[in-house]
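Researcher: We're teaching a course module on how sequence relates to structure. For the next exercise, students receive a sequence and then see the predicted structure as tokens, so they can try to spot secondary structure elements on their own. Here is the exercise chain.
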Amino acid sequence: MTNTATETRSVVVEREVAFAPEKIWRALTQSHLIEEWLMKNDFKPDEGHRFNLSADWGAVDCQVQAVEPYKTLSYSWDTKDLRSVVTWTLTPTSTGTHLRMEQLGFRPDQQQYYQGAQYGWQRFFANLEQVLARIE
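Model: And here is the predicted structure for the students to work with:
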């Protein structure tokens, strides 16, 4: 039997994008590009690297958990009392890439964070697709 008080939820966003994994990887791992679609940051794609994301509403403390170039990127996403993990998965397709983002770790009492992430990631994905369309 599971204890529902300790179960967590995930926000998942998946898209088919008409860009190669290598191009998407650049947008996910180059600090100046991350700033364009997500937030200001001091990101480096090195396991164990601690970095911050910052916006006018506050900051997110992060640490790179896993890096598999052009395939997987995972980092912790900690802000206030939310402790979560964001994982990006890139799967090549015949027309580009299946891009999947999962943010795991929303407790049942964190409905506001959960709803905010559902809205926020949709917006971030739209921004990311605009950056991808523009960069070489």
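Model: If you want an answer key for the exercise: The two ends are 51 Å apart (CA to CA). Helices lie at 21-29, 31-37, 111-134.
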